[in-house]
Amino acid sequence: MIARRIGGGLASALLVGVLALPGVAAARTLPPAVAAVAGPMQLAGEGEMRWLGFKLYDAALWVEARREVGEASPDVDEGEHALVIRYARAITAERLVEVSVDEMRRLGERDEARLARWRTLLQQALPSVAAGDTLVGLHRPGRGASFWHQGRLTAHIDDAALARAFFAIWLDERTREPELRARLLGLADTP
Question: Around Cβ 103, how many Cβ atoms within 10 Å?
Answer without folding.
Answer: 25
